[in-house]
Amino acid sequence: MSTPESSSHHNPIAAIFKQSCRYLGRPKDTRVYWRRVRRRDFLLHLGAIVIGALAAAGAILFRTLIDFFQTLFWPHGATFFDKVTVSPWWLLLLVPFFGGLVAGPVITFFVPEAKGPGVPEVILSVVKQQSYIRHRVTFLKAAVTSLLIGCGASVGREGPIVQIGASVGSSLARLWKLPLDLRRICLACGAAAGIAATFNAPLAGTLFAIEVILFDLEVAYITTIIIAAITASKLSRLFWGDFQTFHHGHFVVSHHAEIGMYLVLGLLSGLVAILFVRSIFALDRLFFCLRLPEWTKPALGGLLLGVLGLYSPYALGVGYESVNMALDGSMTLQIAFLVFFTKIVATSLCIGSGMSGGIFAPSLVLGAVTGTAFGFGLNALFPLLGLHWSVTPANYALAGMGAIVAGTTLAPITAILTIFELTMSYSIILPLMAACIVSAMIVRRFYGYSAYEKKLLDRGVNIVRGHDVGVLRNLIVRDFMTREFESLSLKDTFFDVLGRVCRSKEPQYVVLDDEERLVGVVTLRDISPYLGDFHENKDALTAKDIMSSEVVTLTENADLEDALNIFEQHRVSFVPVVSQHFTDHVIGTLKKDDVLSAYKTWVIKDGFLSCG
Fold it and tell me: Which of 187, 272, 459, 485 is deepest in the core (most CB within 10 A)?
């Protein structure tokens, strides 16, 4: 009579369940198992509510600080554009310069992660740093970025809010001592909550976390992220009311053939997105080449921004006043072109000089003016073609906003949901999809990377290769290396080496000098050429004569992606692992089979976690 234990060998479902119990510490009693699953899900959802609430509080505090600094430095006027317009010329020069002068040392010496948009750093923490973000990022990022935006920096507040929310999620996950996969989810909850609180758009926040931050996600955890986003959106409504970020009219597609025009707008928007991203990184390289202390570069960028602001006040600030002008139809073609060129230069100056701030809002501004100009162009073109059509430039401004965001972030679904939640008009969906998808396709085809991917690529991190690589990035060499290894001395004779080979199961050995420092490796491949003349070589040769002195090593803190790349590039089956501080001191070895086994084990474990 078969027992449950023996029948599992013949029943694949039972075998899988048994294996999942071993990986996750689940009991074999299914009732106890599901009770634990329900308890875990309840606690995770409760944690999502806490993260969403704190991320919303961070967003509210951040926005409050921006308003405080804008009122402090620009005391006159109703809107920020009015404040800048009525201010004297010397204030336009000094305030952005002062903001950069204060923010530069803080960013350089205390929180380098705050430099730039913030989203690339969140992605980097997921793929390379086990979802770890330092606690100080939450406070210093908010303080520095609010000061810069308050002083007129042409950057967005959405990227910093994403980083602030992600920092909240990461900090709480570490406080709760959660495993790696749940730390990723907590970080994503914070990022989604930040976007949801900013735009009053929980769906857009959720999609942003999934499409931009995580790249891959177990379906079971989507609910957790949605809970955090809804919590943050609800709290922001309690504080600000049921607010609208942008004011727009009713969106109407006047003719079916107009969908073709939105496809053309998507193509144009993709080219504009490429120009925008290239401009940012061109200025970034230019400032990098300047022989100035890093902490002074934001001040220089602020001074140049002030000079640009003397020519065009539209260059300063987040730019939402320009967006509302485009959406209510009060923007002229001349102003659209002026905003277009000055906004590209202003944002490139700010990001390139090392200021803290995002590119989401500048992308919305560029999309609004690009769509407006395109709408004016169509109204001028149709009579020349003998067509009696007329379009509303504000509609194209709205679609252009989504299209530029889709191009710069390569996250078209997020862009579509963001604009849809801002309008709540179903009639915009088809034109918006046409523009956003084409824009993302153009950028991917002719440039290849989003602004976030390009930022990380310049730092040597390629995040475009998918889930498999992401798994290996989260696994550290020291957790999978073998600490007991075979070693040889430089003075060991060939006879001694063969004796060691016969007594050991290992096919490879590290060679150490008299001070226990790594000097080479010996494998069976190194030994085999000398076996034919064994009697002549057994006492004449030493380990020094037969070893390979060109040794490839790994540090204990390297990840398994780096290890796998070394195995593939150098065609070796094992690598000595050295100390992080003493690179000639061997503390273990790592085999290629260990990497593949670790990957296989982690994927199976991850799969069961998602099923649970």
Answer: 187
